[in-house]
């Protein structure tokens, strides 16, 4: 059996497989942010406090993070297609139940289940596309996949705000139903099942340790800002649990006979560096999106719909970059593309450090497009090079870890920038307040011009509001500068990546007789037919590796 024969069934319906996978990817990616803008409406509808309604987001994030690493084991034991289809079914049904929920307890429960089923959608979609396309087309495949992963969270708030404003908050969940139905039909019809490995046992202890580490970390990040971080006993306890459980998990996977995650994954340098890289990209992707909407609404006075419209071009920039990368694949070293993406992203964040409350909408759109271009130039080449040298048997686990690191990076990034914002507002306010004294020439001129009347409570309140606004504006700019330094800190990682060897696609074509002579005992009609599944999973996994090496 040669590589061409093995890929023939998948290649026969590449476009339809890609469409089905993209529907599932977009459905899950949208749900990471689409419900954010609907929270105030949910809060009023269900009579919940702001802290209580935040569990609508927390339950989904924690459940998805805990169950995402389980993807590799489930696909090995049950088959990738079967797991993918059931995940789509479960995600669609729980989305419908979220929309029909009548109280806070119901929607939190259904969101938790939605996170359980949605955890494997993105890693499985990436794994399917990597196996569907030959190695030389992996960059194009990752460009298509990246459109859903990167653009979904960016467009989610805009779509969620529009649906909430003109229909009802329940439609942010109901919109998943047509996506889910079409995705399931496509997966059932065009995606092929993978071989099973029933000899693999479930490492319950390893899964429990990793789940405890991820769950405690997510809870710490979610609750830290509300509880004043390490001044709270709860946050300290969660931090200790996360650190201890992660240490025990690392020790366990390197000593157990059949660990939950195989250590062989981390022997591949590109994949290991790629995990660090995608963590950084996760920080930048959603942290910036967490800062801009409140900056535009609270300080610049934009309504929520206008905020969504002005942020949408960021996704357009990402799509343009991803399509460009797909065309450049095989012609330009992907490391140069990643470096260019980091440079564009850093430049856009540097420009954002000069924002004021008087900037135009075009300034927001322009910097958003540049940042979207930068993230697009990073994400697709990084996804390609991270899996370029990874053995095929590790792909399901590898894609799950890749998505998990991106999500954890986003959670940490959001928590860091929000905390830093609150701290800088207080520090800036104190610094500006020190300048409010009778010896301040600018203040005296403002009072003489009639801008402030410091002899009345109303005048003092106006002055304090002005100080608050300036302190908050500067704090946002300091946050953008912090994000710029985080981006620049990722530049040295480019040097650690190794360019994959170019596949020798022309050599088999120039020596057809040699390829035919290599299998003299195989009849012509058998060589062109789709081979049946081999009798043992171990033999199938070995053949997968041989096919990848041959490609």
TrEMBL record:
Superkingdom of source: Bacteria
Keyword Membrane on entry: yes
Transmembrane regions: 55-76, 83-102, 108-130, 142-163, 169-190, 202-220, 240-261, 273-296, 302-322, 334-350, 370-392, 404-422
Domain Major facilitator superfamily (MFS) profile intervals: 17-502
Record keywords, A-Z: Cell membrane, Membrane, Transmembrane, Transmembrane helix, Transport
Compartments (UniProt record): Cell membrane
InterPro entries the record matches: EmrB-like (IPR004638), MFS (IPR011701), MFS_dom (IPR020846), MFS_trans_sf (IPR036259)
Region: Disordered, residue numbers: 506-551
Residue stretches of biased makeup (Low complexity): 506-530
Pfam families tied to this protein: MFS_1
Main location: membrane
Lipid bilayer topology: Multi-pass membrane protein
Sequence similarity: Belongs to the major facilitator superfamily. EmrB family.
UniProt name for this protein: DHA2 family efflux MFS transporter permease subunit
Organism listed in the record: Candidatus Thiothrix phosphatis
